[in-house]
Specification:
By secondary structure, this protein is an alpha/beta fold. The protein contains 14 helices and 15 strands. The protein has helices at about 35-45, 80-95, 115-125, 145-150, 150-160, 180-185, 250-260, 300, 305-315, 315-335, 370-380, 395-405, 410-440, 445-455, and strands at about 5-15, 20-25, 60-70, 100-110, 125-130, 135-145, 165-175, 200-205, 205-210, 290-295, 335-340, 355, 360-365, 385-390, 405-410.
Length: about 450
């Protein structure tokens, strides 16, 4: 694997309106100047996403505190990946603050309208309000842009054209309703694959993804600046699991030796007495059985099936109905609560619609919401109380669903299970009929004829 770059970036709060400020705390011995310049250019020319809503990061200082490259294995884009992943990783641990733009305002209006103005400013979360004047009042202060930017028309209306307002940008300040905005955005940074906080490490020449909360156990460079972490949250730096005996490059091993010193086997205190605790009797407790939900990505399954896909080309409604019929039969055989989800995001002014057909719930998503988004959100909520299986072949959605801990089945596997269940159901039905016929055949000839005559209507029951 001919890629290698590692950087540690310290994230600290910057001054208001400063944007992103870059600082360097690495010597030329630790990281050559050309790579330091690369890191600087990447930081100064990149837009980093925050982890609260996915908005742009600003008003922070990014300090390069450690870095390493390799003469043979480091290539052009390696530091770009390393810097972006390092910043994202740091933000997952940092206490982020959601910002929004604020306007300074200056309002002139008749004194008789002052009460209405003060009430409106209070509702708009305005701050530092002051006013002066006798017959004509001038009020000043600042307020969230989203609340006050369209206030001019309202002012003209209740002052009968006598009111005047002017704005100037004050800057970005903490959001006045951050919790509401964060919940509304429904942004999960772990699942933003284009801005991932995870890192990539190599073992035996193969690269593998390390989740952001396990990176400290794999990194090569020692972690600095422990004083910035709370005492109870300190993280022990664990030496890399890199297997030097199988390295491709002796030079890379030499770098490790210079950094960590000679690697020697750890010797334990084998002679120390072992404190034994009495064994406790293990009592087996059966796992509480949870209700199991099956979420089906409707169109994904339809277009994974040859027969349903052909039917959809002719009549999409018929394809949906056919899939629903299959799921109703499936539910009769399986102990699942089934939710079938279809996209309706292209329809205008469409609210989420939920219908119940013989115990199978059919969901048509609201405007601007895809089936993927609905399934991800529902899975996130249901996993707290129930077992959840999701049937889809959407690649991105599969990654997200796995991350939430749900069971994943591809559309093709699910279709095979539907067919297998249908076949099992048919065999059981045939077997029951066969048992019924065998009972009739075992009757004696005269009694058998009497029953047959009654069945055919040739003879009345006695």
């Amino acid at each position: 694997m001919k890629h290698y770059a590692e950087v540690h970036i310290l994230i600290s709060q910057g001054e208001r309106g400063s944007g992103i400020v870059y600082k360097n705390d690495v010597s030329d011995d630790e990281l050559p100047k050309n790579y330091q310049s690369q890191v600087r250019n990447i930081v100064e020319n990149s837009k980093f996403k925050g982890v609260l809503t996915g908005g742009e990061l600003t008003d922070v200082v990014l300090t390069l505190v450690a870095g390493r490259a390799h003469e043979k294995h480091t290539e052009g884009g390696d530091f770009f990946e390393a810097v972006h992943r390092a910043v994202r990783h740091g933000l997952m641990y940092a206490k982020s603050i959601l910002l929004e733009p604020y306007y300074d305002f200056e309002i002139d209006l008749p004194i008789e309208n002052l009460g209405r103005l003060l009430n409106d400013l209070n509702n708009m979360n305005a701050e530092d309000i002051s006013y002066e004047g006798t017959q004509v009042i001038r009020a000043t202060g600042f307020a969230p842009t989203v609340n006050i930017q369209n206030y001019g028309s309202t002012l003209l209306s209740y002052t009968k054209g006598l009111g005047r307002i002017s704005f100037s940008l004050r800057g970005f300040l903490p959001c006045h309703n951050a919790d509401e905005i964060i919940e509304k955005c429904n942004y999960y940074p772990e699942f933003d694959v284009k801005n991932t906080p995870d890192s990539v490490f190599a073992s035996h020449g193969e690269g593998f993804i390390v989740p952001w909360n396990e990176v400290f156990n794999y990194m090569h460079l020692p972690l600095k600046r422990f004083e910035l972490v709370k005492e109870e949250e300190k993280i022990e730096t664990v030496r890399s699991t890199y297997d030097a005996s199988k390295a491709d490059s002796e030079e890379l091993m030499a770098i490790f030796e210079r950094t960590y010193g000679k690697v020697t086997p750890r010797i334990g205190d084998w002679d120390a007495p072992v404190k034994k605790t009495p064994e406790r009797e293990y009592v087996y407790k059966e796992r509480e059985k949870k209700k199991h939900y099956l979420l089906v990505d409707g169109y994904n399954v339809i277009f994974a099936s040859k027969s349903l896909s052909e039917l959809a080309d002719t009549n999409i409604d018929a394809a949906r109905d056919r899939l629903l019929e299959l799921l109703i039969d499936y539910k009769a055989y399986k102990e699942y609560e089934i939710i079938l989800v279809f996209d309706a995001y292209r329809l205008k002014n469409h609210d989420t619609e939920i219908l119940n057909f013989s115990g199978v719930y059919v969901v048509y998503t609201k405007t601007a919401e895809t089936a993927d988004q609905y399934i991800e959100k529902t899975t996130h909520e249901m996993m707290k109380k129930y077992d959840v299986t999701v049937a889809t072949s959407d690649g991105i959605e599969q990654i997200i669903i796995r991350g939430k801990g749900a069971i994943l089945i591809s559309a093709r596997e699910f279709l095979c299970d539907l067919e297998e269940t249908k076949e099992n159901f048919r065999k059981e039905h045939i077997e029951k009929q066969s048992v019924s016929n065998r009972l009739f055949d075992s009757l004696e000839g005269e009694l058998k004829q009497q029953i047959e005559d009654i069945r055919l209507g040739n003879k009345k029951e006695p």
